[in-house]
């Protein structure tokens, strides 16, 4: 049995906040909790280590990982695309995305997929095509765009799926949602690559999928 958690939320009134100057690729977000505060913006959903702003046209889902049913990702879904967000602990010196990216390339090769590394707005990113089994279709594949963003002692891995993976763009609803994300790493000592697990909001709707 696989369980997933779904939540819809409409955008509320904007909350004024003091602009924060962030150098480098993250100058438009996503943000560290020391740089940006969600305040009383009702469009933000508190998932523990991630604060996600759900705009109109997006549905937030939180699938569980494995038998332990831990929540390691948040997925923002539109009609034809999706954005999966996963956060990990990292070191102050950075560089974790280089290691993770190499591992992802090897995994795609193991699955007989295609992987292209390109320079994007956040640095090196991966454009991936992995074969999938589909009824009455030949040579089917799942496209994805994998972006790694490093902040203060954290790595945010953003995977664009569906139309957003097939036709990568730095504009649009899902990219805006990525830039709105606030990462709350915490001060605890953590091992690099340790997943920053998420928590289910109190008012979320639980949907159970029977397999």
Describe the overall structure.
The chain is mostly beta strands and 211 residues long. The protein has one domain. It has a 9-stranded antiparallel beta sheet with strand order 8-9-10-11-7-6-5-1-13, sandwiched between helices. Strand 6 and strand 7 form a beta hairpin.
**Strands ordered across the widest β-sheet:** 8-9-10-11-7-6-5-1-13
> Tally of extended strands?
13
Which geometry do the CA atoms define? globular
Number of domains: 1
* Beta fraction: 35-45%
Q: Could you name the key traits of this structure?
A:
211 residues, mainly beta, 9-stranded antiparallel β-sheet, 4-stranded mixed β-sheet, 13 strands, globular
Q: Outline of this structure?
A:
Mean pLDDT is 87; it is low at 1-16.
Summarize the SSE layout with pairings.
Blueprint: E1 2-8, E2 31-32, E3 44-46, E4 50-53, E5 59-63, E6 74-77, E7 81-89, H1 96-110, E8 114-120, E9 123-131, E10 141-151, E11 154-162, H2 163-166, H3 173-180, E12 182-183, E13 205-209
Parallel strand pairs: 2-12
Antiparallel strand pairs: 1-5, 1-13, 3-4, 4-12, 5-6, 6-7, 7-11, 8-9, 9-10, 10-11
């Amino acid at each position: 049995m696989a369980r997933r958690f779904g939540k819809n939320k409409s955008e509320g009134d904007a909350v004024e906040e003091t602009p924060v100057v962030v150098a480098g690729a993250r100058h438009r977000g996503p943000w560290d909790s020391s740089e940006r505060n969600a305040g009383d913006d009702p469009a933000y959903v508190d998932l523990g280590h991630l604060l996600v702003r759900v705009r109109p046209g997006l549905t937030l889902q939180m699938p569980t990982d494995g038998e332990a049913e831990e929540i390691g990702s948040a997925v923002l879904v539109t009609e034809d695309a999706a954005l999966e967000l996963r956060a990990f602990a990292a070191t102050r010196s950075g560089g974790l995305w280089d290691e993770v990216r190499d591992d992802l390339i090897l995994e795609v090769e193991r699955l007989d997929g295609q992987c292209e590394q390109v320079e994007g707005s956040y640095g090196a990113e991966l454009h991936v095509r992995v074969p999938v089994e589909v009824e009455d279709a030949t040579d089917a594949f799942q496209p994805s765009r994998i972006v790694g963003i490093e902040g203060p002692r954290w790595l945010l891995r953003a995977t664009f799926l569906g139309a957003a993976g097939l036709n990568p763009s730095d504009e649009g609803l899902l990219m805006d949602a990525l830039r709105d994300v606030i990462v709350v790493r915490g001060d605890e000592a953590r091992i690099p690559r340790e997943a920053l697990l998420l928590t289910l909001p109190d008012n979320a709707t639980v949907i159970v999928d029977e397999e």
